[in-house]
Design brief:
mainly alpha; Serine Threonine Protein Phosphatase 5, Tetratricopeptide repeat; single chain
Length: 418
């Protein structure tokens, strides 16, 4: 079976040559070295007979959780058992390659499918599209779409969602909007996810007016905006400093009967904190606890940040006992909040704990602490900041700026620059 003429190969992406090293070692097609292919023993060591479905399940799991190289080893074992990879096997591998940004694997596997006489389906093409966008080759994506149509496969709403999302993320929001308008004219499939994807892309590119127009079109298109739609619009208003317009959408949400999720609550609470409306933020926080039940790390980060802004340091620290997993942002909020509430010893204790855990890659908490030390205006504090600065393996411009300002205020710049 020949490749569709329009579909890209690795030759269209010179940076991908030579072929992927692992594909050379463990080809998907052909008998495994030292085995007779289909005539091999298909019985596993425990006497069971795994079939193609079993191996495909394993390949999918390895691609998702471990890596595409490990998934190839499962396929290698599959061939040793005399079983041939099918379309589902290839789709899982191409999906895994897309997940791990292995464009070379995706293109080689796609070409190999045709050589093996297998016809790629919509899932195959969609994942190849996704991989091209993630790998930074949006110009080749439309060639995949053309190849898909040449193979008599009608693009689905998922296909168009991938295209619109990829175009927006690659800075081509105008092209994404033009594609959407084309889909409207020809009556191609699209859904609420398509609208949400384009609205989000337009907002992130600063085209809030066009996003708002699209948002208003929803009512006449037979779709009801959901929490994702409203949250996307609110975030765009908040990002551009139009807080009141963003908050006004809360009334629309409640009129439509849409239910807030935890992410929407966190978006509103963060905006209220920036506006200095701490009481309203607290009210929304209580409402979030009542409506959403179990919260994730992002929600707890928002709650901890609010407590620090209100000067409730002990409450912020108590919340740590409820957080399942502390991320870098949590640590940054904690150190910044402790420093701004004049709890520098506690902040330093947290930094020391980070160091024992081997985490110094996140510079934000260290920068916050050095800045707080320098702002104290004491010689011993600036000297301590200098000591900490010298111990850091990684530094950025903010680290240097904070320390230099502290040294200049104390007249120590000349001393420490020698």
């Amino acid at each position: 079976m020949l490749m569709p003429p329009a579909c890209p190969t690795r030759n269209d992406v010179p940076a991908l040559n030579p072929p992927d090293e692992h594909l050379r070692r463990v080809p998907v097609q052909g008998p495994a070295p030292g085995h007779g292919g289909a005539g091999g023993d298909r019985r596993d060591s425990d006497g069971m007979h795994p079939d193609v479905v079993t191996y495909n399940t394993l390949v999918s799991a390895y691609c998702r959780l471990v890596g595409v190289d490990e998934a190839y080893l499962v396929v290698h074992r599959m061939r040793e058992m005399g079983l041939k990879p099918d379309v589902v096997t290839y789709n899982s591998l191409i999906t895994g390659a897309a997940r791990w940004r292995r464009l070379s694997c995706s293109l080689d596997l796609f070409e190999e499918m045709h050589q093996a006489g297998l016809q790629p389906d919509s899932w195959t093409y969609n994942n190849l599209l996704h991989c091209l966008f993630k790998s930074g080759y949006p110009d080749l994506a439309f060639r995949v779409l053309t190849a898909m149509e040449s193979a008599n496969l009608a693009p689905s709403s998922t296909t168009y969602n991938i295209l619109i999302n990829g175009l927006c993320k690659s800075g081509n929001a105008g092209s994404a909007l033009a594609l959407f308008r084309y889909l409207q004219r020809v009556g191609s499939p699209r859904g609420l996810v398509t609208y949400n994807t384009l609205i989000d892309g337009l907002c992130k590119c600063g085209r809030v007016g066009e996003a708002r127009t699209l948002f208003r079109e929803l009512a006449g298109s037979g779709f009801i905006p959901n929490a994702v739609t409203y949250t996307t619009m609110m975030k765009s208003y908040f990002r551009s400093g139009r807080f009141e317009e963003g908050l006004s959408m809360l009334d629309e949400i409640r009129r439509e009967g849409s239910r807030f999720d935890a992410f929407a609550y966190c978006t509103v609470i963060s905006a209220l904190i920036k506006m200095g409306k701490m009481e309203e933020a607290s009210d929304f926080l209580e409402e979030m606890h009542g409506q959403c039940g179990t919260l994730d790390t992002v929600c707890y980060n928002t709650h901890i940040n609010l407590c620090f802004k209100q000067g409730k340091v002990d409450d912020a620290l108590d919340l740590l006992n409820k957080v399942d997993e502390i991320d870098d942002y949590t640590v940054s909020i904690l150190v910044d909040g402790l420093c701004k509430n004049n709890r520098l010893p506690d902040a330093y204790h947290l930094l020391k704990y980070m160091a024992t855990m081997g985490s110094q890659s996140n510079l934000v908490p260290y920068n916050c602490f050095i800045q707080a030390l320098c702002k104290q205006g004491k010689v011993e504090s600036v000297d301590f900041a200098m000591t900490l600065f010298n111990k850091l393996e990684i530094k950025d411009s903010f680290t240097y700026t904070s320390l230099l300002r502290g040294l200049s205020k104390m007249g120590g710049f000349l001393k420490h620059s020698q």
